[in-house]
Amino acid sequence: MSRSIKITSSEDTKLEALEQVTSEGEKKGSMKQAGRASSNSKNKGYSAADIQVLEGIAAIRHRPGMYIGSTSASGLAHLMWEALDNAVDEAVAGFGKHIWLNIDRAGWVTVRDEGRGMPFDSMLYQGDYLPAATVILTVPHSGGKFAQGAYKTAGGLHGVGATVINALSEKLELTIWRDGQQFKQVFSRGVAMPHQVAPCDAQLHGTQLRWLYDRSVFDADAYYSLEAIESRLKAAAYLNRDISFHLDAWDEAAEEQVSHIFYSRDGLADYIRDLASATSAPLFKQVISIVKEKDGVQVEVALQPTIGYKVALYSYANAVRTRDGGVHETGFKAALTKVVNDYALKLGIIKNREKDGFKPEVIQQGLNIVISVKLANPQFQGQTKDRLNNAPVEGIVRSVVDEGLKEWFESNTNAAKEWLKKIQQMQKARNEAQLVEELARAGNKKNGELIDTTLSKKFLRCNTSDPGRAELFIVEGDSAGGSAGQGRFSEFQAVLKLKGKPLNVAKADLERIVENEEIRTIINVLGTGTRATFDSSRLRFNRIIIATDADVDGLHIQCLLLTLFHQEFSELIERGHIYIACPPLYSVKHKGKVIWLLDDEARLRFGAAHPEAQEYKRFKGLGEMNPKELRDTTFDPARRTLKRVTIEDGVLAAKLVAELMEDKNAEMRRSFLAEHARKIRELDI
Q: Does residue 146 lie within any of the structural domains?
């Protein structure tokens, strides 16, 4: 069973890193001075002396989120991915077949390849002769991937990957083996120390980066998710067949060092088979594989229909995950829609393309898809490379997929008919999905406001009409709902009271979901619709906050709700709209004041600091708090603690849901929930 699905902490009151240390010797005072100048409404004292120019390492440390997305666990992992991408580029270029990743108990990360070795001969930079490797590690947008011929394809093209790792590390050690020489250099928060060059075995070649991330930059609760790392390395093996990825890492849960080797012979076909283990059963055993190079672009696509309806689509450019898609996804979808409808007509599944033709979103339902393109000069959107923008790639992928799918349809008539009939059934189910929304919106009137009399007993609206401000708290039971209704900030906080445990949607068919009153209510309140009718732009709340009791039953309800959101509203998780409320478990009176303690660990720390006898009050459920207590601890944005729900890897989330939420796993589920009842950080979806 999966060890964890990841939830990263997000405090409402957390400010961006305006006061983060930017480089060795740089202090916070200048930042505060700029803050004082800007706060003066008349801009008195605001002059050229207040203008700062941050370059290189200082700029990265001042705004790390611009380069790695965030300073949470995902940003921490991004440093690894930058180093890994560089190592993969060497292997794909034909230099080496092995890549090593090590994470020790103290948090040191080591990435080593057996490539050519980063060049360290001297180069002239701003009037000084420096080793080329030193420039690469300290100067953004420097590297060997801008020149023609150095790499046929590469994932790290902005020239900031190694620099970012260096800038955001407390300490970094660089070792290079090249041409019978070993180059070593140590850096401290981006500042280079003197380097050393010594003879070494002429057979040695490659580059090794070893670093300890800077705890003054990253969030206090940032950590390495072993399962996310394993998933990333597994995907890298699929995308780069015949290259071995060696992982040696400390497993915090098992309290032991673990080792794995990730290797794939069949590439994306293996990837699809792995996806099948986490999603619905395949419609047929065969994986549809398309591999071709056209106009200098290598295109590889693998797909397989399943008996379910959820789409699992993963796209990559030069082995870098493009989470926001791009032109390669657009080209694939266009070709898929055309060819499927062509053969549906040809094989007699539909009679009139204009009238009966399958919609693109219906064709994609139930598909497991992996798309990989490799090209010389990819144009990514942003440093985090989440979207591919090379316009010509769209037509190339469309042409390659069009040709490959036609060949498959011609050679696999029986399987093709089975797939097309399944799409036809999905088309009918699409109408049922629209019925879900109609039922969910029953009783709605002007402007979609929720005024249905049945719903009004469960749902307490907020006053604001601005979805960007609005928050929805989902609570269990009338008791918690009553306190929540009185303790909330009614201007922008709505409350939805659930009756009992929600339906386990992991195995429920569409008819049961349609008939379930609690599910219809949730769909109604959110306003997005579901499945084929889902539209995130109609979401009525910026934050959906699950607030359940801190016991096994409460965690069970939480798990059921997360299953619902993962299956029916996964885009809301991906966009960061879903949160878990973390009300304190204890209160204690100390020197005439009430002190709130989040959990048992906080209570122990408080007890150690204040050994005098204390009378602690434990809150099992939200209903045990009065409205003021609930307002102060759970609703007040300035004082509450929330956990943002994220999907680090859709496959990991799907696997945990599949393993825990099946009916036969009720006891396993209860044991898991009991074990993790107050370890929410380890329970990520």
A: yes
Alpha-carbon span 566 to 69, nearest angstrom: 23
Domain that holds residue 555: 442-583+620-682
Whether 103 maps to a domain, the answer reads yes
In a domain, 30, yes or no: no
The question of whether 684 is a catalytic residue gets the answer no
| Helices (H), ranges, 242-359 | 268-276, 327-346, 353-356
pLDDT above 60 for 678: no
50-70 pLDDT, tens per residue?
655 556 788 888 888 888 888
Total domains in the chain come to 4
For 448, the 3-state DSSP assignment is helix
Q: Which two tokens stand for residue 184?
A: 């070593």
Q: Please give the residue that has the higher pLDDT: either 552 or 231.
A: 231
The one catalytic residue among 113, 300, 476, 568: 476
445: DSSP letter: -
Final residue before a domain boundary, out of 262, 279, 295: 262
Query: Is 549 known to be catalytic?
Result: yes
Tell me: do 605 and 645 sit in the same domain: no
Catalytic residue among 361, 452, 553, 571: 553
DSSP-based three-state secondary structure for 200: coil
> Do the Cβ atoms of 168 and 79 come closer than 8 Å?
yes
Q: Is residue 427 included in any domain, yes or no?
A: yes
Q: What is the mean pLDDT of the chain?
A: 80
Q: Do 467 and 505 have their domain in common?
A: yes
User: Is the pTM here over 0.90, yes or no?
Assistant: no
Is 251 a known active-site residue?
no
Catalytic residue, candidates 270, 329, 402, 549: 549
Integer CA distances (angstroms), 519 to 448, 507, 523, 531, in order: 18, 14, 6, 13
pLDDT at residue number 336: 97
Half-sphere exposure of 466 (CA within 13 A, CB side): 4
CATH code for the domain of 242: 3.30.565.10
Q: For residue 647, what is the domain's CATH number?
A: 3.40.50.670
Catalytic position from the list 19, 252, 432, 551: 551
The residue among 484, 297, 546 whose CA lies nearest residue 398 is 297
Mean pLDDT for 606-610 is 86
Are residues 644 and 556 located together in one domain of the fold?
Answer: yes
Q: Is 476 a catalytic residue?
A: yes
Find out whether 297 and 396 touch, Cβ atoms under 8 Å: yes
Q: Which residues contact 374 (CB under 8 A, 6 or more apart)?
A: 92, 153, 297, 298, 317, 318, 319
Percent of the chain at pLDDT > 90 equals 41
Beta strands per DSSP E along 148-287: 169-178, 181-188, 191-192, 196-199, 206-213, 244-251, 256-262
Helix (H, G, I), strand (E, B) or coil at 163: helix
Could you tell me whether strands 312-317 and 367-374 are parallel, antiparallel, or unpaired per DSSP bridges?
A: parallel
Three-state secondary-structure class, residue 276:
helix
Average pLDDT of the segment spanning 638-659: 68
If asked whether residues 311 and 183 sit together in one domain, one would say no
Q: Where a domain ends, among 598, 618, 638? A: 618
Whether the Cβ atoms of residue 24 and residue 128 lie closer than 8 Å to each other: no
Per-residue pLDDT at 546 = 92
Report for 30-34, 186-190, 219-223, 358-362: range of highest mean pLDDT: 186-190
Do 182 and 77 share a structural domain?
Answer: yes
